[in-house]
Amino acid sequence: MTATPSLTVFGHYISQPSRAVLWALAMTRTPFQFVKMDPTKGECESAQFLQKFPAGVIPALEVLHPAVPLHTTTVAVETVPPLRITESSAILKYLALTRGWEDWYPPGDLEQQARIDSWLHWNNSNTRLATTAVFRHLLRNMDLGMATTSTGGAVTASEEEVIRARRAKVASTVSAGLVQLLDPLKVLEGELSARAATARLSGLHAGRRQVDKSSRGPLVTGEGSSPSRDLSLADIAIYCELDQLERVGLLFPSADDLSGWQSALKPPPESNHVSTPIATTTDFPFLRQWMTAVSAAPEHDAVRASMFKLAPVLKGVLLPGR
Ligand SMILES: N[C@@H](CCC(=O)N[C@@H](CS)C(=O)NCC(=O)O)C(=O)O
Fold first, then answer.
1. 282: which of 50, 94, 168, 275 is 20 to 30 A away, CA to CA?
2. pLDDT digits over 259-290, tens only?
3. DSSP class of 279
4. pLDDT tens digits for 194-238?
């Protein structure tokens, strides 16, 4: 008797690490079942979910019949228990190694794997701040983004006072979060600019870039001719933390957004900043170039569609009327 291995992803498109996993699956056209879990509604805390995944976070992966040799679709049924794991980096690595995503995590190349691992771990306490210290506060206060319309515009003076006070509080938290994020962004900018310099020194800048193991990943340089091939798992994971901020204008804002944010966000008094702590293209040209390169990979818009639809509401938390 044989059985087909099956993948079930528990996640939500609003969750950055979920999007990283879902995007990788979409780009590789890997079949999977999707169980939508909304963390904003406490669904990750249900007894049923916790029984399978005690960490209570998404994304989570369940694999039935996990002992699957690479590139096969059927396997003899054994008494193998399902594999259940959380942590997007662990999920991405498992999928890459079992599904043959060799460009993104080269099997057998331990040095390259170590480089990619290093950025994946780094992401968890650095670029992840884009969510935990910034974006999450917009999400949790989404009602403010709808405040003027939900009451049909008829807001009483005392309600307006409450809204103003809450906005001021969120603004100062978001501002402090953006200050914290600047250091990780500087690290990325340094890495990406060093890579660009190396690429130029080895003559790779002229015309089509030759893709070889030393020039590809863990962070793409933006010069590749095949956006999905030039990625690594680290690019996918880190990018999913940052693009949401770009989408609401809190990273590389347009001139219009920047002027709006400058009036809404004051740098925290304890920081050394004299102006809005928002990273601009002028400050981070290589990071900007990298984001453009990664965004060219397939299925980008499909995976982000539902989150992107929310962007105006999320902006409206602090910039009403936009
Ligand atoms: N380091 C984890 C982060 C996972 C995480 O924080 N997930 C959030 C959603 S983005 C979550 O599930 N939160 C559960 C909750 O708030 O109840 C990963 O990479 O998977």
1. 168
2. 999 999 998 888 888 888 999 999 999 999 88
3. B
4. 877 766 555 433 222 334 444 445 555 444 446 677 788 999 999
The atom of ligand 1 lying closest to the CA of 44 is 17
Evaluate whether residue 34 is within a structural domain: yes
Q: Same domain for 47 and 182?
A: no
- Output the CA 320–ligand 1 centroid distance in Å: 28
Question: For the chain, how many structural domains are there in total?
Answer: 2
Nearest to 114 by CA among 198, 290, 234, 239: 234
Whether residue 60 is found in the same domain as residue 145: no
Please indicate, yes or no, whether residues 33 and 59 belong to a single structural domain of this protein: yes
Ligand 1 test: best mutation among 9, 37, 46, 58, most atoms within 8 Å of CB?
58
| Shared-domain flag, residues 68 and 143 | no
**Centre of ligand 1 from the C-alpha of residue 18, in Å:** 8
Name the domain boundary from 52, 78, 101.
101
Could you give the CA distance from residue 8 to residue 6 in angstroms, rounded to a whole number? Answer: 7
Residue nearest to atom 14 of ligand 1 (CA): 57
pLDDT higher at 43 or 158: 43
Contact 235, 188 (CB under 8 A): no
Domain boundary among 101, 126, 141: 101
Closest CA to 127 of 39, 80, 189, 175: 189
Residue 84's pLDDT band, with cuts at 50, 70 and 90, is very high
In testing the pocket of ligand 1, which one of 13, 15, 124 has its CB within 8 Å of the most ligand atoms?
A: 15
Domain that holds residue 60: 2-101
Cα 89 to averaged position of ligand 1 atoms, centre (Å): 12
Average pLDDT along the chain: 85
Is the pLDDT at 145 greater than 70? The verdict is yes
159 located within any domain: yes
Residue 72: pLDDT band with limits 50, 70, 90: low
Phi, psi (rounded to 5 degrees) for 105 = -160, 85
3-state secondary structure of 2: strand
CA distance 320 to 187: 33
